[in-house]
Amino acid sequence: MDVMTAFLLKIIASVSMLVDHTGVIFNTPDYFRSIGRIAFPIYAYMIAQGCLYTKDINKYLLRLLAFALISEIPFSFAYFQGHPHYVNIFYTLFLGVACVVLYEKLKTKINRFFAVLPALPLLYIAETAGLDYGRIGVGLIFALYLANPESRAGRTIVLTIGMLMLYRRNMERLMFAMVSVLLIFLYNGKQGHKAKWAFYVFYPAHITILGAIRFIL
């Protein structure tokens, strides 16, 4: 039975992300990081689906950029005490949606195959600028959109390939990442409870709290 609503998927992703970030900030055993592998595939899928249903994809893109900028200071403080080595996940989500925006603007003017090509420089930026999950993370969001997020077979295939690319050398993390693929397979297409802004705010809020605890201790 399909029991997964969008709300429930986001709750699972948020808890997983909290465990992951706790592991990074407080240097806990590695299984904290492994549990955290559940989060990103769910967020990537939800972002791709959001591109499909948003009333204004340009505002959607700007919203992600705004939260990337808002989150950067607490992210830097919590992880690196003001000396960042890479940037927060919202930049990855932002570039994933930017790929979709470029594609949608070009696909009616040129062949759809060629409309995909402008995304390649964005994948390069993701890899060289220190974005979380790099080119694979950005490419995963774009590929999920191209495969149609509403297609159960399409999203399962894309996510499975993406997880194998990310974690083929770490079986423990791959196993947890594949849990997210199963959860998204069970997604019933229903929104469930509405709490859109809560999930946006949760990212900078929980990082700020974890960073403050680390500073006090």
What is the ordering of alpha helices and beta strands? HHHHHHHHHHH
Tell me the number of helical segments per DSSP (H or I, 4 or more residues long): 11
Oligomer: single chain
Number of domains: 1
State the helicity in percent bands. Answer: over 70%
Could you describe the largest sheet, including whether it forms a barrel? none
- Report the uncertain regions: none
Q: Which class do the helix and strand fractions yield?
A: mainly alpha
* First-residue to last-residue Cα separation: 46 Å
Strand tally is: 0
Q: If you average the pLDDT, what whole number results?
A: 92
Tertiary shape: globular
Percentage of β-strand residues: under 5%
Give the C-alpha Rg.
17 Å
Structure description:
It is a single chain. The chain is mainly α and 217 residues long. The chain has one domain (6-210). The chain has 11 helices and no strands. Helix 4 (57-80) runs antiparallel to helix 5 and helix 4 runs parallel beside helix 11. It is globular. The model has no long low-confidence stretch (mean pLDDT 92).
Reconstruct the topology from this structure.
Blueprint: H1 6-26, H2 31-35, H3 39-53, H4 57-80, H5 89-106, H6 112-116, H7 119-128, H8 134-146, H9 152-167, H10 171-185, H11 196-216
